[in-house]
Amino acid sequence: MPAARPDPPTAAVIDARWLVPGPDFVRTLLDLPQLALVADSCAAERSLHDELTRAPLRAVTAQELHALEDADARENYEVFLAFRDALVAAGTLEAYYLALMRSGQVAVPAVFIDRVVAAIVQDMLAGSDDAFEHRAGELLHRAQRVGLSDGRVLAGDLETVDHLHATAGFGEIGRLLREAQAPLRGTSLRVLSVEHAAEALSADSPRPFLLDLTHEITNDLGHGLSFTMTSAHSGLRALARVLERWVRRFLAIETTITPMARIDDAAWSWHIGLDVQATALLNELWRGETPEPERLRGLIGLFRLEFGDVAEMRADLAGKPVYLGLATSESGTLKLKPQNLLLDLPLAATM
């Protein structure tokens, strides 16, 4: 993992705990499918992979790249090396990420960016013993599959859920049996709860658990009566705490982010979509338009963000809340764009 830098290298570094892209972090990238060795890897590729594994920051010559027989492998290494060198030149993972997102020209493969965000989030939550925060933190760098179950909105890690669906939890044997249409007992992921918290924290990752994103739970009392209460361990609440840390990490700004069921604000002035779908939906709602019901049902989370110090906001918006939205795609997937929260906050011109 990246090592914490004791002193900021430049004035651009806001937090002295920003992470230096050391050899250990760069080495983990060599395990990505795009760079991992395969049976057909030529001798030159195997040699280069081994050399970089031993010394991830070593220079690679044009001759070494030219020696790679497979054109795709050559291109993958060229992209990787350009990413690695830009990351090292930036000094820290955070400085690289912030500059890349502010540039508006993100040509870097998403798999590399997700690894950067994952390392930052892991360090950001290192002091937290809240399993819900750790599971919610994965939403910043891993796609989710979202579905409804008994009125609850549940998010599962996309790769994990799809793998279990394909194999019924029995690995390659399960895949073959399913293709042969042989009956298999069902497999299901568990919903993260207080009872599972210790297990989730002790595991390598809380990824196998579903995160309950239900903010409010309605109980039917019969006779046409019901009452609504806020979920005590809502995944949205945990995500809100993670996003507060995210803003503090990059911008040194204190915010309070609170999940909400709806926006009832006649003076609604500013909003940020945390993903592509939420951005489009919030724009339409703000303009007074009525999205199609099917699309609107994809809006699974709303938040109210307030600045701790209104002087850090744009003067014309000082003191007004910023609304955040979270939505799924038509296929029921969710992919956060955490950079939106850094780029679109209405900050004072001096910041």
Task: Produce a short descriptive summary.
This protein has 351 residues and is an alpha+beta fold.
Structure write-up:
The chain is of the alpha+beta class and 351 residues long. It has 14 helices and twelve strands. A four-stranded antiparallel beta sheet has the order 5-4-3-12. A four-stranded mixed beta sheet has the order 8-10-11-9, with helices on both faces. β3 and β4 (152-157) form a beta hairpin. α7 crosses α11 and α8 packs across α9. It is globular.
Order of helices and strands: EEHHHHHHHEEHHHEEEHEEHHEEEH
List low-confidence stretches. 1-13, 217-230
Number of strands: 12
Main-sheet strand order equals 5-4-3-12
Number of helices: 14
Largest sheet: number of strands, sense, barrel closure: 4 strands, antiparallel
What is the residue-mean pLDDT, rounded to a whole number?
A: 87
Helix/strand-derived category reads: alpha+beta
| First-last Cα distance | 30 Å
Radius of gyration: 23 Å
**Beta-strand residue fraction:** 15-25%
Could you estimate the helical fraction of the residues in percent?
Answer: 25-40%
Q: Choose one word for the global shape.
A: globular
